């Protein structure tokens, strides 16, 4: 038994099971220092656990998403891939965990956003031992590769115009990213609600079948009773 293997197992468990499993593992540790290290492991938030589950499932696109922070892409390409991968990975996360509260979905999105923007965050996510959601406070998502250059002999006025246009493009891209994130959160909420509705519909159909069978049994019992009187 070592700390890394114990942590790998614990951080794959649902948060409600974490504390009991951690305490049991600490008691089973033969070494006092190891027992203390295990006991010090923090219970993950629901959002952090959801991302840990995603990492363990290793769906298609996760490796690419975690590599975006160092990818040499243009801003346009980076924004497009981030959007595509975010929606795919959030959808897969909800498939693994079932419906999540709004704040947990927000934590998942925030953590994936950080991992796509910052190599250190990507490394933390890749390890699968998150205890809380990650946040990225910087601007943009990785240093974009330069757009194809025009005439290298541009004058100062042309350069200022180009730089102003690039700033406006960056601001527009940020606004688009924020709008897309809001849309994605709304779509995730819709998916969770649809799943809850589907389960309720299934329970209703089951109840109808049970009620129908009970009604048939009641009528059969009535006929039997009538025959005996």
Structural write-up:
The protein is mostly helical and 229 residues long. The protein has nine helices and no strands. It has helices at 3-10, 15-28, 32-39, 46-57, 62-66, 75-97, 102-117, 119-127, 156-228.
Secondary-structure blueprint:
Elements: H1 3-10, H2 15-28, H3 32-39, H4 46-57, H5 62-66, H6 75-97, H7 102-117, H8 119-127, H9 156-228
The counted number of beta strands is 0
Order of helices and strands: HHHHHHHHH
Label the structural class: mainly alpha
Largest beta sheet, briefly? none
The gyration radius over C-alpha positions equals 26 Å
Helix content: over 70%
User: What is the terminal-to-terminal distance?
Assistant: 74 Å
Continuous helix count: 9
Number of domains: 2
Q: State which percent range the strand residues make up.
A: under 5%
